[in-house]
């Protein structure tokens, strides 16, 4: 997801390493690169032009001051404008479903409505179970257009442990009203209505949707768009939006080769924020779409928030707290660095985690490189293990003789020690940037 974008953006920032490198010429060359990158991601041209203009205005006349390095300056300008483009800070808080609520899913056939409905129901249950609660959820499909569509939802409902309502009526509007009435009578906290799609936007579909919405007056209407089809999905969205006045958009299929264009342009073209994104076919492959975090990922700052959330179930609370503290201080010790490496190995493969790690998210990797990475991680842990407590604070100067001693003690080479110290230094830089981000 956003993989090639991240790769290109990281490359871009590495150009601005010295204070004198932020010249108007270098900036405009970099902006040309941004333009190509975004065009490849299938972001509409007008949106790109506007974005670049804004970044250039932000950067014009900026002086390199204090500890802000040139790359950070460019990064900050690009980051802040990406956040704005993705929907701004207002939608960064997440989304909580009011009780009771009626939720209507809308979108083209195959966009992912039914799957996403199940994912949402699952997410609500999961959130509630964290507080030892269970929600009463009813789901109903009024898709009489595609055979087996209703059975699909019925099966998914069983999978996620919510109730399925089979309506008597076969008219979509009447069936939706029936389900909502049943939900009210039986004190369901959330009632989901899955609607039919079509291969293309057509008047019959929009008429049917508009009828359902008028009748059941949903608390939330989500427009599900296929993230894989890039800006084409936005034309669909505009046609729907004229009729349904959605609460927000859910971008499905943002895993795999999604080019990300839809995510970039959705807010500016459809004027509705993206609220969730689907990242796979399983019921827990749904994430909040948080502009701040996604911008971090795109520009190569990783997404430690999401990583930490993923880690919550698997990693000791005390370790998590230590790392959080280190991040808040904006200073890592080598001990923290080793802990970070440990956390990573307990979470899964390197490749699946890289996108979350500051400074690593843009790396191009093949399996040989990944193996090398895994080996490197092991070596790094061994090296840190062979250091004295003082050396582990990261503040002691690791002289040549110390490098030799540590290498000998850990079965590595002095070059490995140098590499570790370089990686550690890079990680420090990113932590400093993260610390300056107000939301971290
Ligand atoms: N990879 C991936 N596949 C998805 C995602 N969301 C939905 N799908 C798949 O897309 C196909 C169509 O989904 P479905 O929910 O039936 O679409 P609907 O016609 O809008 O109800 C199914 O094969 C889903 O498994 C996603 O986030 N990632
Ligand atoms: Mg469906």
Number of separate domains = 3
Which small-molecule species are bound to the chains here? guanosine-5'-diphosphate, magnesium ion
The fold-level CATH name of the largest domain is Rossmann fold
Strand content: 5-15%
- The total strand number stands at 8
Look at the helices and sheets and give the structural class. alpha/beta
- CATH superfamily label of the largest domain: P-loop containing nucleotide triphosphate hydrolases
Strand count, sense and barrel status of the largest sheet are:
8 strands, mixed
What percent of the residues sit in helical stretches (DSSP H or I)?
A: 55-70%
Low-confidence stretches: none
Secondary-structure element series: HHHHEHEHEHEHEHEHEEHHHHHHHHH
Any idea what the CATH architecture of the largest domain is?
3-Layer(aba) Sandwich
N/C terminus separation = 22 Å
Q: How are the strands of the largest sheet arranged? A: 3-2-4-1-5-6-7-8
Overall 3D form:
globular
